[in-house]
Amino acid sequence: MMMNLKPFITVLLAFTLWNTGIHAQVKFKFDFGAGKIADGYTRVLPDQSYSKENGYGFDFNTVMTGSGTPFYFSVKVPEGNYKITVTLGDPKKASQTTVKAESRRLMLEAVPAKAGEFIKKTFIVNIKDRNINNGEQVALKPRELTKLDWDDKLTLEFAGPPALKAMEITKVEDQITVYLAGNSTVVNQDDEPWGSWGQMIPRFFKPGVSFANHAESGLTLGSFIGSKRLKKVLSVMKSGDYLFIEFGHNDQKDKGPNDGAYKSYTERLKTFVIETKKKGGIPVIVTSTSRRSFENGKIVNSLGDFPDAARKVAASENVALIDLNALTTTLFNALGEESSKKAFVHYPANSYPGQDKPLADNTHFNTYGAYEISKCVIEGIKSAKLDLAKYLINPKAKFDPAKPDAVEDWHWPESPKSSVVKPDGN
To answer: DSSP of 54-106, one letter per residue?
Structure first.
């Protein structure tokens, strides 16, 4: 019997186009089931490991066992936006699949499927690299060199208990891209138990919008420019794309003669706005998330004049403002001084491997806190009447930060990798 080589040739051709720099059409179709292979699909065996030679496979020493344990699947692809359609479900068992992309970006949340039921879901993942025009590169920090966000693969994590039957991956050019510029409160945090609103917000949007998170822990407006991250964003931005800008925590520590909320911070923030407009992009200024800074049972402002300076730049430059500082102040006050710890990285010793001391961080969020703050950002998007709101999966859903979701109702299948090392910045 002659073997059908067409599916293999399709994957090989896509991989070859990637390697040779011909990026016009990148498309993959994978079948993870045990029955007859669907036409045009490539069969993936449950223990088929990723290799650079194949360009796809299960990654990080995981396999798809069907036992409910999480697994990773990676495909080598070039920079760009990718439409991913997954068919979830198992012929014999119920499942509840959560999908995270790259550095733990939440794409699908707890998708239930009964035994024998198969559900299709589509989402958009942005893949970035550090290359800029004319051979320049983003100056990455050493800790970024191992981040999934910066490698040459598209990596998806399935948890839940998960069940995956099929997957289609297609490079698309018609998405509105929302670029995120910020610090550790925005960046895609790689490791448990850390989280940011930037890695949670994709879950709330349907295809048509892609989030490209260029934030990094410890950055200021100045170091974002100095490490060529703004230049990178502008090099790939197209007309109609957005740039969300949230800085302040680390800028507050700059103590030079021209530093300060109404000096270098204001000047640099205007630079972000002006350069984005030159590209036909839409800048959105986001005031800094509040720290967990309670006095006499209420949050007090620990960010000085920086939130006010951001508001004034938004007004003077006539650009949209999301007052996340005000929204998170309301959120943390509603949670209260003690219960708000459940939104931050506050854990007793031995909660995570290698953690011999308690974690008590009043700046950085856990995944519950990050999820609630992403809902605050969405309310800000709607209040600012941004066209992005029409791409929300549930545009009628309302979130009141004065009435946060109960932490007991939060379900997050933890990723295998954790770290007790605090992100840069404070």
So the answer is: TSEEEETT----SSS--EEEEEE--SEEEEEEEEE--SSS-EEEEEEETTTEE
Give yes or no for a cis peptide into 423 (omega within 30° of 0): no
Q: Provide the b/e sequence for 208-229 (b: ≥16 CB within 10 Å).
A: ebbbbbbbbbbbbbbbbbebbb
| Whether residue 281 sits in one domain with residue 237 | yes
Which amino acid, one-letter code, is at 234?
L
> Residue 106 has which token pair?
């939440």
Q: Which domain holds residue 393?
A: 175-426
pLDDT tens, position by position, 329-341: 999 999 999 999 9
Handedness of CA 62, 63, 68, 72 (dihedral sign): positive
The count of structural domains within the chain is 2
End position of a domain, from candidates 117, 147, 173: 173
Beta-bridge partner residues of 86: 121, 167
- pLDDT average, residue stretch 321-333: 98
Region 365-389: mean pLDDT is 98
Q: Look at residues 152, 173, 194 and tell me which one is the last residue of a structural domain.
A: 173
- Mark whether 225 and 259 lie in a shared domain: yes
Is 216 found in the same domain as 104? no
Assigned token pair, 78: 């070039």
Closest Cα partner for 247 from 200, 194, 306, 293?
A: 306
Rounded to 10 degrees, the C-alpha dihedral 128/129/130/132 comes to -90
Lookup result for tokens 């200024």? 285
> Residues 364-375: what's their mean pLDDT?
98
Same domain, yes or no, for 93 and 226? no
